[in-house]
Each structure stands twice: as structure tokens, then as C-alpha cells.
């Protein structure tokens, strides 16, 4: 896939066209403390999932959704993110001399046109809301997308592209959402919805990281947004919230009073690559999609699982002893959204 060779899909005659979303903001100035020490010197967004860094996966998703302008919000020591989307002549010349044309293809496939890349610096990371606010002048007065690079979704049609289809139906503001165990609500922004039809939720309000007993549902905000430019007015006056940071969720919660917000439950496997467990799961999941890697990876995992179970095998229970298995509602998948009264 070439970033600079994306076809533009037309619409049928007479079909209603909402304002197009052609700009995406990529907040990438955070300290990434959950992945230390790996992120001491390397930006989290440059950590690779098999052979592509997280930031490239995010940009590929944006391209599929029709994004044409890429706004990177970074700190001053993360310029490597921007360099990744260039095509170094020295490297290209060396590969050409060696006849490594497949590698040249990979470089071109991860290159963005220079005019499409915009950079703004967030010198003092004060939260996601502040990062989005930094992009205000570059976004201007038009709807835009926000993509958090450490959140990714495995699906044939990527998350933002699915959301764009929802946006064409609903307009307004669209937030990606997914079902979580209720006892994990304190890790996420949570939807309080009026009703839902299929995968679209009409949002009443948003609650930032509530305790399970206070959570209005088990539908969490995922790191994809389509927002109207009015959000910048709310971010500009937003007080610090959870963690002492300016929270995007808090600004959206205020904006709901004057604009429509919809949650969209995307299709696909959610992977949080911003922590150790999610990062490892993503490596396995994406490796198994690669036909050159999958057979050997499968054999290796089978061997390691066998070793693990042999080392951790428990002695057989005494006759008459019945193992007790504890369960709780949060351990049992609901397969449907839970709306708490």
C-alpha cells in the first residue's frame, strides 16, 4: 500500500454528503511510563509490532479512512517519528546497488508526501486534552479525527474506516467504543447512553474512569475519535481532571450539552499496546497474520505452552476433593452492553 496513492471513493448522485474528515491528529508526546525501560530513549510509538512501528500502523489506518493531512503532536525528542515517514536517499541508493528492491518497496510504502505531514510540539505533557488542543491552528474549522497510536484493532476493515461510515449516517461527534469487564471501568472513560441501535450508541454523558459501582455501563472509550472543531473551545477552558491532567473526556462531557455524540462499537480485536501484556499479545496476533511467520510461530508457541504446563502442573486432587472455581459477573463475558440503572 502506498500512502500517496490512495484512491478517492465517490458518492452516488443525490446522496447526502457531510463535511469530509480529511485531517487526523496523532497525540504522541507522552512519557510512556507503562513501558519503561524500553521507552527511556525510544519513543513508544516507534516500538515495532513485528516489522512496523505503532505509528505506522496508526497512519495506515488513517490512510484507509481517507485522511490526507497527518498532524503529529510530539515532544522535541521524538523527531524520529517524523523521519520514519521520509525516504532517505542514502539508504535507497545503498539498497538499489545491492538489488534489494523488495526493501525499497517497503520504504516507499511507509513514506508520506512532505506536504501532508504537519508537526506541533507539546513541550509540557498535560494530558490528552492538551495534546489535541495543541493541534487547534493546524486543524482549523473543520471536523477531524484523533488516533491514539498505542491502541490498535485487528480487523480487515480498520477501526477509523468503520467510524467514517457511522459518521456519514449520524454526523456530529463519533467515539469508538468497546465492551469491557465492569470491574475494569476505573481504567477507561465510560459511556452513559440513552439507547443504541446495532453498533451505534446515542450518548447521554461520559464519565472519566469511574469506580465499578459508579460506572453507568460497561462500554469504554477506545482511542479513536471523530470530533467537530467546537471541541477546541471546551478544551481551552478545561480544568485539570483525573491524574492532574487536561482530559479530553471531560471536555467532551461538557460539549455533549450542545452537540450530539455517538459511540460506535467497532468490529475487530482490541489491542492496547501501551502496556506489557497488550504489547506481547499484539506481537503474537500480528505475527500469526503473516503467512511467512505463522507456521513457525505456531510451532514455537505450542512448544512453549507444553513446557509451561509441564513446569506448572498441579498434583492431582485427593480422592473426594472437588476443586472450587470462583466466578464473578466480571469474569463472564456478557456479549452485550450492560447499562447500569
Topology of helices and strands:
Blueprint: E1 23-28, E2 48-49, E3 52-53, H1 54-64, E4 69-74, H2 80-83, H3 89-97, H4 101-109, E5 117-121, H5 128-134, H6 136-139, E6 144-147, E7 151-154, H7 159-170, E8 173-179, E9 189-197, E10 200-208, E11 219-227, H8 231-236, H9 248-255, E12 261-265, E13 269-272, H10 276-287, H11 294-311
Parallel strand pairs: 1-4, 1-6, 4-5, 8-12
Antiparallel strand pairs: 2-3, 6-11, 7-13, 8-11, 9-10, 10-12
Helix pairs in contact: 5-9
Structural category is: alpha/beta
Mean of residue pLDDT values = 86
Q: Care to count the β-strands? A: 13
Number of domain modules: 1
Output the number of helix runs.
Answer: 11
Short recap of the structure:
This protein is 29% helix and 21% strand. With 341 residues, the chain is an alpha/beta fold. It has one domain: Alpha-Beta Complex (Spore Coat Polysaccharide Biosynthesis Protein SpsA, Chain A).
Give an account of the 3D structure.
The chain has 341 residues and is an alpha/beta fold. It has a single domain (23-290), classed as Spore Coat Polysaccharide Biosynthesis Protein SpsA, Chain A, CATH 3.90.550.10. Helix content is 29%, strand content 21%. It has eleven helices and 13 strands. The chain has helices spanning 54-64, 80-83, 89-97, 101-109, 128-134, 136-139, 159-170, 231-236, 248-255, 276-287, 294-311, and strands at residues 23-28, 48-49, 52-53, 69-74, 117-121, 144-147, 151-154, 173-179, 189-197, 200-208, 219-227, 261-265, 269-272. The strands form three sheets. It has a nine-stranded mixed β-sheet, sandwiched between helices. It has a two-stranded antiparallel sheet with strand order 2-3. Strand 9 and strand 10 form a beta hairpin. Helix 5 packs across helix 9 (248-255). The N and C termini lie far apart (47 Å).
Amino acid at each position: 500500500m502506498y500512502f500517496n496513492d490512495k484512491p478517492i471513493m465517490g458518492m452516488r448522485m443525490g446522496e447526502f454528503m457531510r463535511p469530509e474528515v480529511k485531517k487526523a491528529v496523532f497525540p504522541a508526546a507522552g512519557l510512556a511510563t507503562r513501558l519503561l525501560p524500553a521507552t527511556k530513549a525510544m519513543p513508544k510509538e516507534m516500538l515495532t509490532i513485528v516489522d512496523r512501528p505503532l505509528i505506522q500502523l496508526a497512519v495506515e489506518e488513517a490512510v484507509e479512512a481517507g485522511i490526507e493531512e497527518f498532524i503529529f503532536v510530539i515532544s522535541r525528542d521524538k523527531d524520529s517519528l517524523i523521519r520514519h515517514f521520509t525516504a532517505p536517499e542514502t539508504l535507497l541508493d545503498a539498497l538499489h546497488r545491492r538489488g534489494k528492491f523488495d526493501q525499497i518497496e517497503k520504504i516507499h510504502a511507509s513514506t508520506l508526501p512532505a506536504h501532508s505531514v504537519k508537526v506541533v510540539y507539546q513541550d509540557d505533557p498535560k494530558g490528552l486534552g492538551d495534546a489535541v488542543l495543541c493541534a487547534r491552528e493546524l486543524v482549523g474549522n473543520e471536523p477531524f479525527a484523533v488516533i491514539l497510536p498505542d491502541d490498535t484493532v485487528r480487523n480487515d476493515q480498520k477501526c477509523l474506516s468503520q467510524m467514517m461510515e457511522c459518521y456519514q449516517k449520524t454526523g456530529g461527534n463519533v467515539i469508538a467504543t468497546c465492551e469491557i469487564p465492569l470491574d475494569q471501568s476505573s481504567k477507561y472513560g465510560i459511556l452513559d447512553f440513552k439507547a443504541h441501535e446495532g453498533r451505534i450508541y446515542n450518548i447521554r454523558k461520559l464519565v472519566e474512569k469511574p469506580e465499578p459501582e459508579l460506572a453507568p455501563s460497561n462500554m469504554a472509550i477506545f482511542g479513536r475519535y471523530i470530533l467537530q472543531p467546537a471541541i477546541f473551545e471546551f478544551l481551552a477552558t478545561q480544568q485539570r481532571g483525573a491524574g492532574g491532567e487536561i482530559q479530553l473526556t471531560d471536555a467532551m462531557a461538557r460539549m455533549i450539552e450542545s452537540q450530539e455524540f455517538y459511540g460506535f462499537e467497532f468490529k475487530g480485536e482490541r489491542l492496547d499496546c501501551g502496556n506489557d501484556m497488550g504489547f506481547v499479545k499484539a506481537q503474537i496476533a500480528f505475527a500469526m497474520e503473516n503467512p511467512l511467520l505463522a507456521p513457525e510461530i505456531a510451532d514455537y508457541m505450542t512448544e512453549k505452552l507444553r513446557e509451561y504446563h509441564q513446569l506448572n502442573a498441579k498434583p492431582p486432587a485427593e480422592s473426594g476433593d472437588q476443586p472450587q472455581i470462583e466466578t464473578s459477573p466480571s469474569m463472564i463475558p456478557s456479549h452485550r452492553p450492560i447499562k447500569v440503572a
